[in-house]
Amino acid sequence: MNCKFNFGRKKALLLLSGLLCLLAASAGAQTSSGQLTITMNVQSSITLVFQNNPSVGTTGFCPLTNAGTNNVGLDLGTASFPGNSHSSACVNYTHLTGAVYEVSSAFDVVVTKANSSSPNYRLAAQISTPPPANVTWLLNNVTLTTAGFTTLDTTDNYSAPITKTLQVQVKNTVAAQVLLETITFLATAN
Amino acid sequence: MLKNYISNMRGAVLAALMLCGASLVAQTTATGVINGSLVNKNGISIQFDTDAAGVTLGAAGTSAATANFGAVSAFGPLSGGVTRPSVTAANFTVRTIFDVQVVQGGLTSTTYTLAANLAAAAPTGLSYKVDAVTLTTASQTIQVNGSYNTDIAHNLDLVVSTAAPGAGGPAVGAPITTTINFTATAN
């Protein structure tokens, strides 16, 4: 009798534990996993932007349009030889000789590097079209041509503003006209 | 006599035909049963899908996909589907978008929780973010209420140090591969 009772209890316990196991299994959180594998290739790079010089607005420092980018405008206004005439208050106007005048304005070039051990960079420039006779475009007194990039500096420091002065020299024999140039700057990591 | 014989024969033939017909009818019907059984189990699955605004995933539609950012740099061109939301002096971020779809069956759950972790420590000069959560080798929650059966877009950001190689920056000019583990858990 006693034996039967024990057997019944054991059976009940077994059933109960089975039920608990089933409940525990169904209560367990359902999960699913996946893997996303990412590949990339980091490259060294440098960038060049033009910025207004801190002295912008004063004589010799005209404001750039679209400053802070690598594609800016610089309007030197209107000028003529007689009477030191020039319309822009920010340009620097000078008579170089008895027959040539020059207008100039300065701005900053900033070259930044990333993921590079290059210590410094070279800076060069080139004009887009041959200027009319007796018109010369210069940067810091270096004459620019269309023949190729002319070196301006060989060891400029990254992330530091490099001030460049754009000069246009015009002889008094040049006919009245609009003088336009696109000047391309090239920074090359050393 | 002959009449009787013919009549008897006719009767016998008719009886034989009736018996044949009866036996034919009995053989055209049969019955049977199939005792079908199915154990309907519950479960969920995860898959990665290409997002229209992101890079095309390798093995899209599976739970083991690949995303190739191609060449990345602070200032240079990027591959299609990769954007560069920020560039600072210290680092730059490149981003793509990918979709996660989780499907469930047999559960009363209506949403899931998505977690992710790096399979190994991030390479030098790099960190990985999913939806602005910086990943580590420990699992971190990305989303707590994901809906089932639909693509959910997630941003995958790689934050790259601008430092030079050997100075805290990542290796340059060589492929860098990292695996991110994702886990979807039914709520």
What is the topological layout?
The complex is a heterodimer of chains A (190) and B (187).
Chain A: H1 2-27, E1 31-42, E2 45-51, E3 79-80, E4 85-86, E5 92-95, E6 100-114, E7 121-127, E8 135-139, E9 142-143, E10 150-156, E11 162-171, E12 183-189
Antiparallel strand pairs in A: 2-6, 3-4, 5-6, 6-11, 7-10, 7-12, 8-9, 8-11
Chain B: H1 2-27, E1 43-50, E2 64-72, E3 83-87, E4 91-105, E5 111-118, E6 126-130, E7 133-134, E8 140-147, E9 152-161, E10 175-186
Antiparallel strand pairs in B: 1-4, 3-4, 4-9, 5-8, 5-10, 6-7, 6-9
Describe the structure in your own words.
The complex is a heterodimer of chains A (190) and B (187). Chain A is mainly beta and 190 residues long. Chain A has a single domain (45-189), classed as Immunoglobulin-like, CATH 2.60.40. Chain A is 14% helix and 42% strand. Chain A contains one helix and twelve strands. Chain A has one helix at 2-27, and strands spanning 31-42, 45-51, 79-80, 85-86, 92-95, 100-114, 121-127, 135-139, 142-143, 150-156, 162-171, 183-189. In chain A, strands 2, 5, 6, 8, 9 and 11 form a six-stranded antiparallel sheet that branches. A three-stranded antiparallel sheet of chain A has the order 10-7-12, with no helix packed on it. Chain A has a two-stranded antiparallel sheet with strand order 3-4. In chain A, strand 3 and strand 4 form a beta hairpin. The model of chain A is unreliable at 1-5 and 18-27 (pLDDT under 50). Chain B has one domain: Immunoglobulin-like, CATH 2.60.40. In chain B, a hairpin with a 2-residue loop joins strand 6 and strand 7. In chain B, strands 1, 3, 4, 6, 7 and 9 form a six-stranded antiparallel sheet that branches. Chain B has a three-stranded antiparallel sheet with strand order 8-5-10, with no helix packed on it. Chain B has one helix spanning 2-27; strands at residues 43-50, 64-72, 83-87, 91-105, 111-118, 126-130, 133-134, 140-147, 152-161, 175-186. Chain B contains one helix and ten strands. The mean pLDDT of chain B is 90. Chain B is elongated, with a radius of gyration of 35 Å. Chain B is mainly beta and 187 residues long. The longest helix of chain B has 26 residues, at 2-27. At the A-B interface, strand 1, strand 2 and strand 6 of A face strand 1, strand 2, strand 4, strand 9 and strand 10 of B.
